[in-house]
Amino acid sequence: GAVVSQHPSWVICKSGTSVKIECRSLDFQATTMFWYRQFPKQSLMLMATSNEGSKATYEQGVEKDKFLINHASLTLSTLTVTSAHPEDSSFYICSAREWTSGDNEQFFGPGTRLTVL
Amino acid sequence: DAKTTQPPSMDCAEGRAANLPCNHSTISGNEYVYWYRQIHSQGPQYIIHGLKNNETNEMASLIITEDRKSSTLILPHATLRDTAVYYCIVRGRDDKIIFGKGTRLHILP
Questions:
Q1: What count of CB pairs under 8 Å joins A to B?
Q2: What does the pLDDT look like over B35-64, one tens digit per residue?
């Protein structure tokens, strides 16, 4: 089956530093990738959609300069949280959509837990 | 906004069938019903999806009413490992997935 990986699985950083999270589709080509954020006891919130080779589309209220998304290849997207602060501590989950003839299922990564001190 | 309504929580005895309802009264003709679940601190896991007909796979069955305004996910023999938040999602094939609040299913030993 389609597998999506994320790295790292967890990260702790100091306030003011930047953190990069990688999302990879391991056995399929993903023309579209999605980034979600989840706070404790809440549902997943879509942050942005990225298509390979083009700029990401951010959801309302998500700061594009703070959450930099790069989707440079069909198997890799990265999310960089710039100048992280404690309120950015969250569970970040990526998802990749596989395009095949007549199908476009979306598969999720295991998530990355970010803690900003 | 999510297009579905689900009960916030449900309990089910281990070994019994878990029936999770979902209302989607505003579903349009080209939208599918998808079910995902999220076990604590993991990414969502795809369960099943359907358009009009009932569907079954190795994990679950999906029963969609004839008017398509509601559906039920059935886990035939629930185990403790099925404890999770279950999300019912309505989307077109090209649409992004927007999560609602889901149903927190507790499997009781």
A1: 44
A2: 999 999 899 999 999 999 999 999 999 999
